[in-house]
Design a protein that fits this description.
The structure holds two protein chains of two kinds.
Chain A: E1 5-7, H1 12-21, E2 26-29, H2 35-41, E3 48-51, E4 61-64, E5 68-72, H3 77-82, H4 84-89, H5 91-97, H6 103-106, H7 111-116, H8 125-130, E6 134-138, E7 148-152, E8 157-159, E9 162-163, E10 170-176, H9 187-193, E11 195-203, E12 213-221, E13 227-235, E14 242-243, H10 257-270, H11 281-303
Chain B: E1 7-13, E2 16-22, H1 28-35, E3 54-57, E4 60-63, E5 76-78, H2 91-99, H3 108-121, H4 127-133, H5 144-159
Parallel strand pairs in B: 1-5
Antiparallel strand pairs in B: 1-2, 3-4, 3-5
Helix pairs in contact in B: 2-5
The chains are: A alpha+beta, B alpha+beta.
Chain lengths: ~300, ~160
């Protein structure tokens, strides 16, 4: 392990200022499950590690008015996995958090770390993209940096293991909007009978493995069981986690076999997989369709009142 | 850039205050094994996969190979040395003994601590839950069936189900 100096500042301002001093040779540290391995194997020379865990206010899960959620960046996977309110409202996110590494990893790994590590196979990223999540980012008041800003989650990633953040910027929270009402012109009546559902599907060879493909779906059904909103996201089949485009064309249809077949085809078309040690591009493309079909089917089951 | 300095560190391990001057790159595993002379946590994969190095940090199982010792400043840790003593075994240890759930023994400190944390939170985990809670601890002897039986027995011992 290379040697470095360690800082555990108490404020975001101090953390960002430290990073701004030598951004090329410094790293932020959250849960550490990715950073330790990076420092050992592939990060290049690092002189300074800046631990964010002593900064107050970066951890926690809260429901926002209207049924949205705000999750602090340092919230652990284990906390997401166990949170009762979140399990009821956003089972796709809890299911994703529950398969990151094993339990000892999930007691350390953080949501912000999972997103900023920018792996296209990051499990929590896929449901968050399906929810239309945003991320809050702060430059900590460092001169010349952004004070604090909010960006769409998909704008966080530049490519595999690369984000669009300025070096001194820290992701501080993830904001998940309330589920769409899907009510159209007559929102007030639609609201009473609409139902929301979301689900996460994942393909791996073994429990601790990284996803070969994952998919998440978030949908709304109107009172007659027809799609009033639908978003589908795919992981590990592109340079970043990606959304399946064109799902609006499916609105108004019931979630039946024909619809799932169409979702599968759309997901296969949207996927841009590569061949690597885990799977071939052809296999990943086909499985992207299967995972998308499962995620949509599972998301619709509780929304329709079925037992998933 | 000044040369990295050693950092004074203090944490509570098995109820005792431990202090040392460590390089920031020192892993928590190395700190426990070499500075504290507590070799119960094992050096396995050193990538967070195998769970041989698991200890409890504030009661939760963590892989100490992926934590720098300095990150644990001020925290409370429990290693296998703090779980029970030969004359006063913890229920989970007694159950592993009665079930003969240990083969080579390398994974057992981590297994015991993960199982102990599970049984602190839940009194009657079923087999699926036990297997899930131990999914971060690999047994290279593949003796999982007896390990699961031992955790069930420990729940009985600990919560008086029998």
């Amino acid at each position: 392990m290379q040697n470095f100096s360690y800082h555990a500042p108490a404020t975001l301002g101090e953390a960002c200022a430290l990073m701004a001093e030598a951004p090329d040779r410094s790293r932020f540290l959250a849960g550490g499950s990715d950073l330790h391995l990076a420092l050992e194997h592939h990060a290049g020379p690092v002189d300074t590690v800046i631990d964010l865990k002593r900064i107050a206010g970066l951890e926690g899960i809260e429901e926002t008015p209207g049924g949205g959620w705000r999750i602090g960046a340092l919230t652990r996977m284990a906390a997401l996995e166990r949170h009762q309110g979140l399990r009821a409202a956003l089972p796709a996110l809890c299911a994703a958090a529950a398969v990151v590494g094993g339990p000892p990893i999930r007691n350390r790994a953080t949501l912000g770390g999972n997103l900023c590590n920018a792996s296209p196979a990051a499990d929590t990223a896929t449901p968050l993209l399906a929810f239309g999540a945003q991320v809050e980012v702060s430059g900590g008041g460092v001169p010349g940096s952004n004070a604090s800003r909010t960006l769409a989650l998909e704008a966080l990633w530049a490519g595999p293991r690369s984000t669009t953040l300025r070096p001194e910027e820290v992701l501080t929270a993830v904001v998940i909007p309330p589920p769409p009402t899907g009510g159209g012109a007559n929102e007030s009546t639609a609201n009473e009978s609409t139902a929301h559902g979301n689900a996460f599907a994942r393909l791996t060879r073994s429990a601790m493995d990284i996803a070969l493909v994952n998919a998440a779906a978030s949908l709304t059904l109107d009172g007659s069981g027809r799609l009033a909103s639908l978003t589908v996201a795919l992981g590990a089949v592109g340079a970043t986690v990606l959304s399946v485009p064109g799902t609006d064309a499916l609105l108004g249809r019931p979630v039946d076999e024909a619809l799932l077949e169409d979702i599968g085809k759309m997901a296969e078309t949207a996927a841009q997989p590569i061949t690597d040690v885990r799977a071939s591009a052809e296999y990943r493309r086909e499985m992207a369709g299967v995972m998308a079909m499962r995620a949509v089917g599972w998301a619709a089951a509780p929304a329709k009142g079925d037992t998933p | 850039m000044s040369a990295p300095r050693k950092i004074p560190l203090s944490m509570t391990v098995n109820g005792a205050l431990r202090e040392a001057l460590v390089e920031p790159r020192t892993s928590l595993l190395t700190f426990l094994r070499e500075h504290c002379a507590l070799p119960g946590a094992k050096r396995g994969c050193e990538e967070g996969e195998c769970g041989a190095c698991v200890v409890l940090l504030e009661g939760q199982p963590v892989t100490t190979c992926l934590i720098f010792a300095v990150e644990a400043e001020g925290h409370k840790l429990t290693t296998i040395e703090g779980l029970g003593q030969p004359a006063h075994l913890a229920p989970i240890q007694q159950a592993f003994l009665e079930t003969a759930a240990s083969q080579c023994g390398f994974c057992i400190p981590g297994m015991l601590l993960s199982a102990h944390a599970l049984l602190k939170a839940e009194s009657q985990p079923d087999e699926a839950r036990i297997r899930q809670a131990l999914s971060g601890n690999l047994c290279r002897c593949t003796g999982y069936d007896r390990i699961v039986k031992a955790v069930k027995l420990a729940a009985d011992l600990q919560y008086g189900h029998r």
